[in-house]
Design brief:
Layout (H helix, E strand, L loop, with lengths): L1 H29 L2 E13 L2 E12 L2 H21 L7 E10 L13 E11 L2 H9 L2 H5 L3 E2 L9 E3 L3 H26 L4 E8 L4 E4 L13 E14 L1
Antiparallel strand pairs: 1-9, 2-4, 2-5, 2-6, 3-4, 7-9, 8-9
Length: about 240
């Protein structure tokens, strides 16, 4: 009987040692992982242009300022028509009328009325807007006093198709991250195991030509970038 008990105890000790060893090995393996980043970039074309055309008209009387403002609006509509931009894409916005006589510091003999107005051009015809913006000096030649008293001058180009390209770009960034992990594993004489943790990252819409003073919204062609951070176990 004592012999049987001794055998059972011996087997139990062997099994316990084996389980303990496996547990410690698993703990050690779980601490072995590599953190890598995967990058995906894609060049995209803006699909919406917003172009605020701001102008100013002045006159010694309100009627004179209004007449000049009307003439400027007609000149702008004619210019846009020549650029093949339909009048339906133009919306009248922001009208400010200033009576300089209400300013006690205004000197005598200067203009009495100032009208500032904005015509907003909203179009999906990016190439036409871009070409028209390059020819905007023709408006100045016709007597329109353009102004950029607030906000950036020129068109703003927007891209609204981000959700359509997100899945493919995430897959591309993840594949790039795994490739980096595999290269690290080869250098470390190991192999890549399962996924430990993943962070998709933030999508960025950047200017294609990234240079000082150039805004992303000024460029009709943009770069979309996402950087994913992934942890892989090493085996």
């Amino acid at each position: 009987m004592k012999v049987v008990v001794a055998i059972i105890l011996g087997i139990s000790l062997v099994l316990s040692a084996s389980l303990l060893k496996e547990g410690l090995t698993g703990l050690k393996t779980s601490d072995r992982y590599v953190t890598v980043k995967g990058v995906a970039e894609r060049e995209v074309q803006a699909d919406l242009a917003l172009w605020p055309i701001r102008f100013v008209a002045t006159g010694n009387t309100l009627e004179q300022a209004q007449e000049k403002a009307r003439s400027s609006r007609e000149a702008i509509y004619a210019f846009l028509e020549l650029q093949a931009i339909d009048k339906s894409a133009v919306e009248l916005q922001r009208l400010d009328v200033t009576d300089t006589r209400a300013n006690p510091y205004q000197g005598e003999g200067e203009q009495k009325f100032i009208i500032n107005q904005t015509l907003m051009v909203r179009s999906t015809q990016i190439d036409r807007i871009r070409q028209a913006a390059q020819n905007v000096s023709e408006l100045v030649d016709s007597g329109v006093l353009l102004t950029t008293d607030y906000g950036p001058g020129g068109p703003t180009y927007l891209f609204s198709g981000l959700n359509d390209i997100k899945p493919a770009m995430i897959a591309e960034a993840t594949a790039s991250a795994r490739e980096a992990a595999q290269q690290f594993a080869r250098d470390a004489n190991a192999s890549v195991g399962g996924l430990r943790r993943a962070n998709q990252g933030v999508f960025q819409i950047l200017a294609r030509d990234q240079a000082p003073g150039i805004s992303e919204q000024q460029q009709p062609v943009k770069t979309v970038r996402v950087v994913s951070t992934v942890d892989y176990y090493l085996e």
